[in-house]
Write a structure and sequence with these properties.
Layout (H helix, E strand, L loop, with lengths): L8 E4 L5 H12 L3 E6 L3 H11 L3 E5 L5 H15 L4 E4 L20 H29 L2 E8 L10 H21 L4 E8 L13 H9 L9 H12 L10 E4 L7
Parallel strand pairs: 1-2, 1-4, 2-3, 4-5, 5-6, 6-7
Length: 254
């Protein structure tokens, strides 16, 4: 079974700004109803929903809290219909500036745990909340957001990369369990993006270095990653599950 994007209700976590906003915009552009989740970026999320127009609404919830996620999914279902696609993009507070990140000798477990709570616990909470309706419909698409730093750890983002690696593992084990009921689970892993709030602190020299070492000779955009997310939600990917698609202009060969 496969539904066109225009027939779907899509929930995007952490969609008030940055990559999440680009993903929400891409789904709205192709006619989906879009639920824009935010934790603290209320003003940005509501402004985005207003700009994207009818069929798009903002919903507050902290994905680390299972009860809040259950409430949010119930609110989305009442307003827009049960989510057919969920994109887990939410990110713990983070700045992509290697010079400002903790090296191993100073890294505290709490820094890793903060990312695990948002990336992995958040994904688990979402699966718990959307699985019943997706199973009843015999259709569901779950897309997680990873990073090419898992394959190419050129900067010391130990906490962030460890959590994304764990999320990739959960993506694959969830794909194996949920496939028989018609739910696919895949990951899209971007590289450094030009530019989001999180990457705004990245030194320009790093952007230049990445561009020079990428086959396409440029740093990719949030919109380009968003288009790859749409692929996994579309009928074209109906036989694809448990995969990690790296979208970074060819910097990493996966």
């Amino acid at each position: 079974m496969a539904f066109p994007i225009s027939a779907q209700t899509v929930l995007v976590t952490g969609a008030g700004r940055g990559l999440g906003a680009a993903i929400a915009e891409a789904f709205a552009r192709d006619g989906a109803k879009v639920a824009i989740n935010y934790r603290a970026s209320r003003e940005q999320a509501e402004a985005l929903a207003s700009r994207l127009g009818e069929g798009t609404c903002a919903f507050q919830a902290d994905v680390r809290d299972g009860r809040e996620v259950q409430r949010m999914v119930a609110e989305v279902t009442a307003s827009l219909g049960a989510p057919t696609t969920v994109v887990h993009n939410a990110l713990a507070d983070f700045s992509f500036n290697g010079d400002a990140r903790s090296k191993l000798d100073a890294l505290a477990w709490e820094e890793i745990a903060a990312h695990l709570d948002t990336a992995v616990k958040g994904a688990l909470n979402l699966v718990h909340a959307v699985r019943p309706a997706m199973t009843a419909a015999g259709f569901g698409r779950i897309v997680t957001i990873g990073t090419n730093l898992f394959q190419n750890p050129v900067v010391p983002y130990h906490d962030y990369v460890a959590a994304k690696g764990a999320l990739l593992s959960l993506t694959r084990t969830a794909a194996a369990e949920l496939g028989p009921v018609g739910i696919t689970v895949n990951m899209v892993s971007g590289g450094l993006l030009r530019t989001t709030d999180a990457s705004a602190a990245t030194p320009e020299a790093v952007f230049d270095f990445i561009a020079a070492n990428t086959p396409l000779r440029r740093v990719i955009t949030p919109q380009e990653v968003a288009d790859a997310v749409l692929f996994f939600a579309s009928p074209w990917a109906r036989a694809v599950t448990g995969q990690n698609l790296v979208v970074d202009g060819g910097l990493v060969f996966n």
